């Protein structure tokens, strides 16, 4: 039975400008201005993510201090104090070989948009081979999987920016899937969301060959990828009419019934609520297809906070305290909504860090590993 959580506890202070406490109006306008900056800052963001993904897992040799985060007490996603299981798993992972299969195709989208990579850990109990027909065959027991989704303001970016993350997670024992998706403005919402669903269907179709445990599928994304991960996570148990707000699939499409349940979501720096955008603001039109006045259902359908309900998967949110691109209020309000619904959620605030730098901060790296080990490996 789901237990109702306590209120959010933050281990870090949130610094406001001197003067009166911020009003809903001031926060609202701040969030709108920064969300609209995705189109301008996208190039800077993605190259920051490239650099970040390269350094993130090697910056501290795997010995980062554990961060204290805001979490539900009764239904927390944290590891127990003094728990040595994660350290044991990470230590054993250092010598694990990872087999990569790059640029596989999940759709006929132009260019690289329909491509994904697979990262398999190799062990005495798990061997991987590919036959002449190109089929990938894994021998061994089923293992949990993590789907990785890159950032870039929904307009740029590529899966290779997360490749180092993928290898490190695979060394821990996960089958890791790293995907590209169709990009705005050529392809607007909800096509990116449907692309994520298509990759999840690849896991279903090949679960026997790849030895994937479909009851233990997690998702990680940062920035725009964090948004897509969170949105898929909260929409999984919604009514079909709500799911269709973020899909081009027909209501009676058989693919709906084939999608696997999502067991855990880790989202970093995610935009979570587009309903705050003023009616005639066009800052996100390149992604959402118009202003809120023109396409109100797109702004509703794309907002993870709007679709929170009991039964959503455990969530780990990570946000830089000084994120100027996606303000931390996004994660704070999303976490509060999840807690009110009785969903297990942790919000890790990385002190004094902005949007790009948070991704490769040692605390972020450690929290990603701890979360998926607890939610998917220890279940």
UniProtKB/TrEMBL annotation:
GO MF terms, alphabetically ordered: hydrolase activity
One Pfam family named in its UniProt record: BD-FAE
Q: Which residues cross the membrane?
A: 35-57
Question: Which intervals hold domain BD-FAE-like?
Answer: 141-338
Q: Which UniProt keywords apply?
A: Hydrolase, Membrane, Transmembrane, Transmembrane helix
Fetch the InterPro entries from UniProt. AB_hydrolase_fold, BD-FAE-like_dom, GDXG_lipolytic_enzyme
* Protein name per its UniProtKB record: Lipase/esterase
